[in-house]
Fold each of these.
Amino acid sequence: MAQSFSLKKGWRDVKTIAFLTLDTLFWSKKTLFVCLLSLIVLGLAVVGRVVLSLNLVPTALPSSQVFGTLMATSVIRFLVIFVTLFYGTALISEEVEGKTLTYLFMRPIAKPTIMLGKYLALTWIGAIMVLPTVFMSYMILYLRADMRPFFEDLGVLGRDIPIVLLALLAYGSFFALLGAWLKHSILIGLIYAFGWEGFVAVLPGFTRKLTITHYIQSIFPHGDTLSALSMLVGQRTETIESIVTLVLLTAFFILTASLVLREKEYVLEQ
Amino acid sequence: MTAVLEGRSVSKWYGQVIAVNNVTFTLEQGVVGLLGPNGAGKSTLMKLITGQLQPSQGEVTMFGERIWNNYELFHRIGFCPEQDSFYERMTGAEFLAVMLQMHGYDDAEVARRTDEALETVKLTEARDKKIAAYSKGMRQRIKMAQAIAHDPEVLILDEPLAGMDPVGRHEVIQMVRQWGRDRKCVIVSSHILHEIEAMTSTILLMHNGQVLAEGDVHQIRDLIDKHPHNISIRCSVPRRLAEAIVGFPDVESVKFHPEGDGLTVESRKPDDFYGRLPGLMLDKEIELEEITSPDDNLQAVFHYLVK
């Protein structure tokens, strides 16, 4: 009985923190920037559509290939990373800079619960900012008089969405950890995402397994897209192993972020 | 009987800088003033007491329990921080409601306590106004409201009078005194002696991270009366105010601010001056924007004490 009450209270606390964080994140300047990034992705989808419609390339490209390329390069390697980087690193650091963390820490809520609530908000806002762009890109590339490809490839879209969500979860947890732990987390995050992951992706051997992107590329269904190029120098990891690894990494990063939040002293400058 | 708050040889340092140095204290119910100039270590001590920081050395306990990461204790603590920071997009009522939800109250109880706290700090009319649109005094009050809304047994108020108008100051002082009478343990910090004196006669005097003196405020009062006290006033018509106060026997000098938005008064009897000021402002139809007191004089008293 006491345990169920405690679970109920814990879930209520998670939701309270999540709504509070969602409101703060959504109405920040970051959202404007993320919207601009989404527009860039949609602009690229429009360019893809024009190329398809006007037959500007010598070989006939199916919409699925253009969509797959867009998903691999612009959505997962660009939009998802920026969304999780900007919002994820801000989860704690924005409360520290805004000096509002005191209000949360002075409540009878365990700090890991605060971290979970914030992470839930990050996942929500990530989905809110990324998934509409994915749907709209799909529509831009597929909507035409002949609607058969639109319906035939809905399965591809259905497979892509969970992968995008998994990428949001994994990158989000990693950047949330950086934000809770380090002062210049956004810079470290940029170096990781575009330096380390970009560099290691073309190296043969085991090191590529030390990136999140490797496991996401391994489960990506578009075998003929640009993402496959980076696999030329190394093998994909099995789908199940990749999914399990991504889930475990997410859990590990969130657990570590919770411990950091629990043990770290945040000094709010007067 | 277990003390409400106890600190045993508490020290806190950041790298080479010692913020609190080997402080020992025992606090019971009632109001205690934590007095010291800026940088004395008051805020650090308050953060140690509220479990926001953990001591580098020594131990702080509340009701016999360690505070750091002891979440259940926060049902019993209310903290009003010094910093003027909020979730600016929220209204006052929304802010209090969210803070109360985190205490586990159901919706009806959250609503009841929100109303009660707003009423106590006299913000009922501004409840649906965004905090971003609140004046400095209103922001100070809503900060107090979040500290008292869950009816804690221990209240820790870091510079609660900073930036408040005279009427607001008077109200907060009355509230603090009432909480003391209600047998709550209230710790209130300030770098201005007469503010503390208006709330309590029991003080903990801090300087350079150490507790210099503990006990009755009157001995300190005797020292400070020998030194002029600076009071900085920002108001709508500084010249008119200067004309009105320059002849007062307790006013040593009046200096206009270079920006032209106010003046600094030097007084040997600051309490008399503060008592007279609200009526004077009303009579002369002068709008008060801010009243502050630089700690230069208190600093001088501390120099006396540490010599």
Note: Chain A has one domain: 10-50+60-263.
Amino acid sequence: MNIDGLLNFLDSLEQKGVLNSEINGQIQHFITGKNASIGKLFLTLAAIIGALFLSAGVFAIISHNWNDFPRHLRGALSFVPSLVALFFYYKAVFKHPKSTSWIEASSLFLMLMIGASISLVSQTYQLDGDFDKFITVWLILTVPMFYIARASGIAVFYLLLSTKFLFPDIQYDWFMPSGMTLNEKYYLFWLFLFAFLPHFFLSLNRNSTRQSFRAIYLGWLIAIFLVATMPFAVKAGYTWWALALIMAFYLVGKKYYRHNISSLGRPFQTMALLHIFHYLLYFSNEQFSDFMFRLDKLRQFKEWTNEQVTFFIIGILLTAALTVIAILWRRKEAVLNRAVIFIPVLYVFMFGIFCVNDYYDVDLTWWSFLIFNIYALVFGVNAMVMGNRSGSVLYMIYGLFLVCFLLWARYFDMDVSFWLKGIFFMIVGLSFFLIHFLSNEEFKD
Amino acid sequence: MKTKKIIFATFALIIVLIPLYLIFKSEDVLKNGHQHKLRLQGYDPMDPFRGKFLRIRFENSVRCETGMKEGDLGFVLLEKDTSGFSHFSYVQKERPSHSDYVEAKIIMVYEGQAELDFDNLNKYFINEDQAGEAEEIIADFTRMAPDKIHLNIRVLDGEARIEDIIVKSKKLLDYIKSGAHKNFEEEMMKEMMEQLNQENMMDLENSLRELEELEELDAPEVEFIPPVIEETED
């Protein structure tokens, strides 16, 4: 139903005496307010897309290469894109500071026109140039835009460009062996990431547990970006960093987003749960154990480079610090799920078992994985129960999927007799029927 | 508001200063740098931001100082040969005292030869309508008349800039505008024929000269006896 139809319907309800005029007014205010914010979002998106197409047009015109003009004239013309974009940016910052469309579109336009100006100069003076330097200069000039007018739309382009410094150096060879080394300039990625994060922090409504569309968008962007880039940006101890990421996502999500309505509105919590899903399934498999803990590599600790040691230690410290914060917070407010906080502890336990195996020449691996699998199962069941309590079907489905994937994987790789396996799976199957009896009355009907 | 305006003005100034720095630096090299001619090859890909360009290829495998390895920055010396063409002669770790050198990154070292990656000498940006013909010109000349095409570069204190591509003593764009390349094949055939004729003429002249030299020697005169032609009765 469209908004006008809905408002007419409410008026008719008031006329029939179903609603009083005060409640009707409140509902109409809520509906029109929501409609206005969607309209604002639409306008902002339209402005961003407009700026994007305009910039693409400028780049296309530059690409024609107007080499009939004298070099000096072309050099002078190189400033035109930046100056025009600066003019619009000035208008946005000082004349329309409250207009999101103006701020976002002019910032994106300026960001792209800075690139256009540098491209034009390099085309005029035949500067083949170093692409890394070009991107570095471009990103450095983009950083102030996050803070002068607080534009967030450019963050997608900014973060995507910064991944340039994570691209592995691939020496592909048709005949000889191909080589791949991690990018040596990865530190620039970290620098640009740290330059951007305060913008996200400033965009949060720090006194609330519900966030605006901007904070949700930035939350999703950062969460997806970090999960995708960490394997290339961390030089050693990725497992610790993955744990730290889970804890950080969970804490930030709970602190600032926990009262947002849907899973889409809680980016950090959703990404933490998805990350946990992957983490639990991966670590529950005994086959990966040697690959995961790599005690042989730890013995060569002295041969590691300084940057590898630093990353490894920072990973451990971050995980430890975030876990301690989570435990203290839970004691104080009890809003955190203890099953999530327990994951780093479980990992340390698994690691300890492997150390005991190694130093005392025993084999406790099977027991440790049994405990881990039980934990994963409990985590899944807990998700279903919590989802049931809070009325979140999505959370229940998450738990169900986790349990199903876990059992499906164990059905194929568990090395026990089939009769025992059969009885175990039947018990699990029956427990799913038990869920039906325990679930909310409203779900049953 | 005043602070915001100062921040904005500083930001705007930096945005303008960066292209300005690039322009002044390039102008300095192009005006005050030493000129060198390099032999080249080329083809025509595209840059999404800056349009069409000819990728310039030249000899980039250069003898290097011992101890240099992949990823190092080296100072590459230029040397002129008797025909007026320059080539990169040696890569060293130390910055030379003169200004006739280029800074380059070492891609690979093999048996004392370093393969180099030169900044600002690999792409020649060109108008999209002229790129196709320019590529054809470079391909034709590098294949059939390599002495008539070269790359002019300017070098100053390690910085290098492309000045122009020179085809038959003309700048590439002027050569394209003159339309001379339409008759390239005919001209080349004509030149080849002329060269062939010249070579034949030279051979003939040499033979005659040898004959004259022989005549000048004190060799015994040989009496010329005309052959007797018997008349036949039909």
Note: The interface with chain B takes residues 59, 62-68, 75, 78-79, 82-83, 86, 90, 93-94, 110, 114-130, 137, 141, 144, 148, 184 of chain A (CB under 8 Å).
